[in-house]
User: Fold this.
Amino acid sequence: MTLVFVMLAEVLIFVPSIAFFRLNYLIKITDFAHLATLSLLASPDNMVSDELREELLFRVGARSVVFHGANSRLLILSENMPPSIDADFDLADRNPLMLIEDAFMSLMIGPGRIIRVVTPIENEPNSSLEVVIDETPLIAAMYDYAWNIFLLSLIISTLTAVLVYLSLLWMMVRPMRRLSESMIAFRRAPEDITRRLVPSKRQDEIGVAERELEIMQTRLRAALKQKQHLVALGTAVTKISHDLRNILSTSQIVSDSLAEIKDPKVQKIVPRLMTSIDRAIDLCTQTLKYGKAEEREPKKERFLLAALVNEVKTSVGLSEDNTIVWNSQIPAGLMVNADRDQFYRILLNLCRNSVQAMEAGGVIDISAARTANHTLFRISDSGPGLPAKAKEHLFEPFSGSTRSEGTGLGLSIAHELITAHGGEILLERSDVNGTVFCLDIPD
Ligand SMILES: Nc1ncnc2c1ncn2[C@@H]1O[C@H](COP(=O)(O)OP(=O)(O)O)[C@@H](O)[C@H]1O
Ligand SMILES: [Mg+2]
Assistant:
């Protein structure tokens, strides 16, 4: 590209310079002719021998030279047979465009023309010089000149191209190669610190890219390490939960046989013992379930929402004495497009939390509405609101629970399942007057 561009620039320069070259050539000839006429004008009768005339014409490179004085016309030098003229050029009235045109006409028409060049004489007003020349040597010189310019341009553009190529290679390609090699190396072995990119001090975009890449790699490496630790920790927790559950099952069997002892003291302790063992087993089971990698992908189907909400109602653990009012306002025909099982678990978790929060009684409102291709749910209760700890760790596994028998998994599971549906769960309000969760599920 550099080669082509420099050559193009040279062509643009060549056009005026060839015109200039031709002009200089003509001026030089007329200057010589002027000198010759001066020597002639100095001789008696303005006459010289035939040999000298021939010699002078040959030196000037002209066929004839005519001097126009203020009021005389003087044919000073001429061959015996004056040639016929093909073209006239008055150097006094040539503008640059005309000069360019003259030069290209000469090149196009080619050698063989006889031309007459008229030029005013310096310091002698009203006098001029008329020189008739054969254009052939002029055209040959012009071709020589063009050829030289072409060679020179070729050398300049090749040199420029080599320099541009080398500097691009040095300043752009090499650092980019370093960047991409570092990316590939990082992708292959992210832990390998020895192949880390050491950023240069460059201030341009490449420098920024190098530094950003280094920061990104360092952070990713740290995150990766942390993740590995967490995986190890998770595996350990799973193993512990698993073994603990087995041990607890044994205790459960033992406490079952304890229940058969009629001693009132034992009878008083056994139920408490059994509930705590049950809870402990439940905790282990839930932890194991959570640890079992991710939930499966939702299998979406269309189902009637009202029926599902009824199922949730029967299993949410409402007490017999109706202290909690269940107020479901689901439109009869409302269909939802979601994974039915997972959606059941989402609602059950939320509703069970509400029931658990309202031991003294209260109201649960469930409503749903459809917009274009979303279903919006609102589950609200008149309970005491989420405790601060639960709010701070909202949707985080294991950390938000404030109940002694809780695991802190309910909300985080609901969040995970909704997100897998491409939907959203929001805590719209939670204060002493109650708690409102909103769900948004796209079809
Ligand atoms: N509707 C609610 N009203 C009051 N507190 C709630 C409500 N829902 C959740 N919480 C609080 O958030 C905590 C975390 O809930 P969750 O993730 O379901 O875990 P868990 O029920 O096992 O404790 C609960 O312990 C409870 O304190
Ligand atoms: Mg819960």
